[in-house]
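We emphasize that the prediction below concerns an isolated chain of 182 residues; any contacts that depend on oligomerization or on bound cofactors are therefore not represented. The input was used exactly as deposited, without trimming of termini.
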Amino acid sequence: MSGFNKGIHKVELAVKWDPSPPGQPPTDLDIVAATYPASAPYGDPAYVVHFDSRSPDGTIYLNRDSVDGRGFGWDEVMTMELDRLDERYARVVAGVVIQQRTGRRTFAGVLNPAFRLREGYTVLAGDQFGTVLGATAATLAEFVRDGSGEWVLVPGVHGYDTDPDGFVRAMGESRDSAPRDS
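Result of the prediction step, given as a token string:
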């Protein structure tokens, strides 16, 4: 029954982790989202949203940012209003990168990392990064427009061994050609 697909409209990506042990440098995970036009759904993004930024049209924004995992509940939260994105955009990739300022750190060195992707009260995906422990960054969700123009989720956690700038480049690659860790 085509025509009844409501697609995905507004999602929230939340990430949490525990602070580093006393005497250790802080652990800083950052949510990153990259938006791609229909004319070039792979390669360089039209724009990237991360700490200290938001999408030009206000449809993708960071609600909460943490530099050390301190606090209760979800440490970083990003909202993506996919249904408000202009029709010229066909793909949005969201993920997490570990800041590497104090030396190389992978998900194996992050205490109790987890993420949750939900639309309203419905959890669409969630994980504890167990499949990408050797990675320094991971894509967590890919959203693409289907034939009717509705947004659908392409689930999957994919790890990368790269710095924040390299991660943005990796997000633009096709999953079939992207080099991955684990």
